[in-house]
Design a protein that fits this description.
Number of helices: 15
Radius of gyration: 24 Å
Structural class: alpha+beta
Number of strands: 32
Helix content: 10-25%
Strand content: 25-35%
Shape: globular
């Protein structure tokens, strides 16, 4: 440990005082420079094919948190509790006194965090520790951090080191400042927090500290560090968007860049999927859940695409060109890919090939494996007999993703995903969105403020009802003030009028089960159009104004999308009655969620937009507040520009 401190001293890098004290007084410290070293540590040595991550819990005895297998394509970890296989949305609490709209630790638990903080360090001092440096962010945007975890939780450390860019001692530049630290103490979940996932953010003057009291990477290694980036952006005036992105190339060489946002389960990872075809080559649009009828279309050739980002992207000033389009660059070093939609061999051949024979070890979570087997992304572990875990994951370094783009990209179409339930006359719901809708900028902002989490979310622990994830759909991970992020989002939208906004449902369109086909078909259609404008007779005001413009017709390669999939009220099982009841539910939800943004400090334009919604504004009224400049103009590039 003394050697490490001396090396850092020679580079002019100072450890935070609490970190330095902890490492000096710990039982033992192992420093890691590479993910390969952490992969070996995940099973307590490369020679071990299986390892149990367990701890002595006072009053409970020995408890196994996870079982780890060394498999041919990496490391596979499975939690013993189904609860730990998904992110609990209520994990974040704030320990400091800096400005925040989030729940304070002392308010939730009834005492000051300093007591648990001291106990955390005392527990860590009694452990064999794993330590490494990471860069929170990517492409030179972000900051240096240090992670400290129990050595037997190597699989968790591996996930963190893959998701964030791991930094070896040799890679550390002279004078770098440590701006974040992560302390992992899983036993406190049992001893202090009633078995629940808890992640504590403590924003000191110099360091953003994260205390992770669980071993699921979602709320800490991924979304916790996301909070670190959002805090930095809040200070400096830029956003890390909660999105995926691809650059799509049509059969006619048009290139269109898509940025897809949305709450968890809103289809971000799925934007990277190829369209699955039926054995005879047709594309299944959906199945009527009432009649059992299916609808297909023929698309001779699909667009090619190049992935850009999977879940987080920097909208940093350094990548903007102020030409009316938003530019983004991926904010992650690896992607935390949910594979619940891959249920059998052949569902996603590209992803299957990438994960079965990877160029370096991957981390699999909630995948059913045996020691020294090959982890298969369609073989999901069961939460209980006959019930598969809805959140199987694989962590994949972005550098090994086929055709991945490393540079900033200009966004042509910025879509928002809505996880929609079934809607019928007898059981109306907000599942009234058609195949896709065009949103005016003001409405695009409102959708990001509300960010409905939606129907049967597979990624998090929830009751399945519609809930809000708030500003930009990243609010669950932010530490600061809601109105500040709302203002940044509005300024961003107003400053990028050449980026077009769409709304895309998934899972259901009325009574039709559609999965993620709407966003994939939107990708196909918009890419083929290139710079062409929509004809005036192709769209009209939606019956529900919150849905912007609905399509009157949609044709892809000569195949017409049935009108009931564009206008849900045309479905006999729904009708105007069911649609209007669903529209009323959606409108009521928007009004309830938007009122909390009417705070001092909200931009006047934002206040006018929210008040317009509260007064049941028409689409024209929204357009008067923020005009639709460059209406429906999409990017048109050539292959030579790449």
């Amino acid at each position: 440990m003394t050697d490490l401190i001396e090396v850092l001293k020679g580079k002019g890098i100072t450890l935070p005082e609490n970190v330095s004290t902890l490492l000096k007084e710990a039982k033992s410290v192992s420093f890691f420079n590479t993910t390969e070293e952490l992969a070996d540590a995940a099973t307590n040595g490369k020679e071990n094919l299986e390892f149990e991550v367990k701890y002595d819990i006072p009053g409970k005895g020995e408890y196994t948190e996870a079982i780890v297998h060394r498999v041919k394509n990496g490391i596979s970890a499975n939690y013993t509790e189904p609860y730990m296989r998904r992110r609990d949305p209520g994990t974040m609490v704030i320990a400091d006194n800096k400005p925040t709209d989030k729940t304070l630790f002392k308010d939730k638990f009834g005492y000051e965090f300093s007591k648990v903080q001291d106990e955390t360090f005392e527990w860590l001092k009694a452990q064999d520790l794993a330590v490494f440096f990471y860069f929170a962010g990517r492409a030179g945007i972000g900051s240096l951090g240090i992670a400290i975890a129990p050595a037997n939780a190597g699989f968790f450390a591996l996930g963190l080191a893959m998701l964030q860019e791991m930094k070896s001692l040799e890679e550390l530049e002279d004078g770098m400042e440590i701006k974040s630290s992560i302390f992992v103490a899983p036993v406190f979940r049992h001893t202090h927090f009633d078995g629940k996932q808890v992640v504590v953010h403590n924003r000191t003057e110099d360091v953003h500290e994260l205390y992770s009291y669980n071993l699921y990477p979602g709320p800490s290694a991924k979304k916790g560090v996301y909070g670190v980036l959002l805090t930095q952006g809040e200070k400096e005036g830029w956003i890390t968007a909660h999105c995926s992105a691809v650059e799509a190339i049509s059969p006619y060489d048009n290139i269109t860049t898509f940025m897809h946002e949305g709450a968890s389960g809103g289809g971000k990872s799925e934007l990277h999927q190829h369209i699955l075809r039926e054995p005879e080559g047709a594309v299944l649009l959906g199945q009527n859940s009432v009649t059992g009828e299916t609808k297909h279309i023929e698309i001779p050739k699909s667009c090619a695409f190049r992935p850009v980002a999977d879940d987080m992207a920097f909208c940093h000033p350094s990548v903007q060109e102020k030409d009316g389009k938003l530019r983004i660059v991926d904010a992650e070093n690896s992607w935390f890919v949910r594979v619940d939609s891959v249920n059998q061999y052949g569902d996603d051949p590209t992803l299957e090939k990438t994960t079965i024979t990877p160029k370096e070890p991957l981390l699999f979570l909630n995948i059913n494996t045996n020691p020294d087997s090959t982890a298969l992304i369609w073989d999901h572990i069961e939460d209980e007999p006959g019930k598969k875990c809805p959140n199987p994951r694989v962590v994949i370094p972005r550098k090994i993703m086929p055709n991945v783009i490393d540079r900033p990209v200009a966004v042509d179409v910025r879509s928002f995903g809505l996880r929609a339930p079934q809607c019928t006359k007898g059981e109306p719901s907000y599942g009234i969105a058609g195949m896709f809708h065009i949103l005016p900028p003001a409405l695009a902002w409102l959708w990001r403020l509300v960010a409905p989490r939606g129907h049967k979310n597979p990624s998090i622990v929830s009751d399945g009802t519609m809930q809000s994830e708030g500003v930009g759909s990243y609010w669950p991970f932010a530490t600061g003030k809601m109105v500040d992020h709302a203002n940044m989002l509005l300024k961003q939208i107003i400053d990028t009028p050449r980026t077009t906004f769409t709304l895309v449902p998934n899972q259901n369109i009325g009574v039709w089960k559609v999965g993620f086909k709407p966003q994939l078909l939107m990708r196909e259609y918009m890419t083929r159009r290139g710079a062409a404008k929509l004809r005036e007779d192709q769209y009209q005001d939606s019956r529900c104004p919150l849905l912007g413009y609905e399509l009157n017709y949609l044709t892809i390669e000569g195949a017409k999308i049935p009108k009931p999939l564009l206008k849900v009220y045309k479905q006999p099982e729904v009708g105007v009655e069911g649609y209007d009841a669903g529209a009323a539910e959606l409108t009521e939800f928007f009004k309830k969620e938007l009122k909390q943004y009417l705070q001092p400090g909200l931009l006047d334009t934002g206040r006018r937009i929210i008040e317009a919604c509260l007064n049941d504004a028409s689409i024209d009224e929204y357009n008067k507040i923020v005009p639709m400049s460059f209406e429906y103009e999409y990017s048109f590039k050539t292959i030579e520009n790449l």
